[in-house]
Q: What sequence folds into this?
């Protein structure tokens, strides 16, 4: 599977550099947590990768394919799956319909002429079956006929993941997946991310403020401060580093 990478990725808003020449590679089979203090540029960096923002300089690559000039929709078709802090669903459609449409979009993208909406019932049955399989994997089968708008926040995040899986994403990007959740909902979503980690063909990126979540899930931590990459490595080493203790945790190393 292709490696995701950013090369000197930069964005400026007037005179302010929000992300400053960040170069990083993200390998299949790993979960990288991107952390930093508020305003560090974490979500902006995510937006540059997924195409919600246009870079001022630098590149976004998926394997040897340059995605930098592509809109977000084309990056999704290329394999970048993004789950947002605020869920991005069709609220008045059922859970099953949300996932089935994603399966259909994926199948259409695989055919030059797209899917024929007037195709045989067996074709639609195949789409429905795949949607049911994904709902079972994400523990949403019992809520198949429920409208997305009526789901709890935690179940909406699970539905987002089911949609990303339906789109056959090779890269899963989670922006604070536990934000706004009750204590009861958090373990369900974290368990789903753990399950995704088992697929070593997938690349996972996670923006998260909760360091206990980061310690548990991350294979690697990348730290941004004022838009600049200041640390990159295994969780134990990065969390213990002086720059993270000061910039992220607000602790200064005692003078010798």
A:
């Amino acid at each position: 599977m292709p490696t995701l990478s950013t090369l000197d990725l930069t964005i400026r808003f007037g005179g302010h550099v929000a992300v400053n020449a960040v170069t990083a590679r993200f390998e299949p089979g790993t979960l990288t947590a991107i952390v930093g203090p508020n305003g560090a540029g974490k979500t902006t960096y995510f937006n540059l990768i997924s195409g919600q923002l246009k870079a001022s300089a630098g590149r976004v690559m998926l394997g040897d394919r340059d995605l930098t000039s592509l809109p977000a929709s084309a990056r999704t078709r290329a394999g970048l799956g993004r789950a947002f802090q605020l869920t991005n669903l069709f609220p008045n459609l059922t859970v099953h319909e949300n996932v089935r449409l994603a399966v259909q979009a994926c199948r259409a993208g695989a055919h030059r002429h797209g899917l024929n909406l007037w195709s045989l019932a067996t074709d639609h049955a195949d789409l429905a079956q795949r949607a049911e399989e994904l709902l079972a994997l994400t523990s949403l089968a019992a809520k198949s006929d429920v409208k997305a708008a009526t789901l709890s926040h935690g179940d909406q995040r699970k539905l987002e993941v089911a949609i990303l899986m339906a789109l056959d994403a090779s890269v899963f990007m989670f922006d604070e997946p536990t934000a706004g959740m009750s204590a009861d909902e958090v373990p369900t979503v974290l368990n789903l991310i753990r399950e995704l980690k088992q697929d070593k063909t997938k690349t996972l990126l996670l923006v998260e403020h909760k360091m206990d979540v980061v310690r548990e899930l991350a294979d690697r931590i990348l730290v941004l401060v004022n838009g600049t990459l200041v640390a990159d490595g295994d969780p134990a080493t990065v969390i213990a580093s002086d720059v993270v203790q000061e910039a992220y945790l607000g602790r200064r190393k005692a003078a010798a």
Observations:
- The domain at 4-247 is CATH 3.40.50.300 (Rossmann fold).
- Residues 111-115 have pLDDT under 50 and may be disordered.
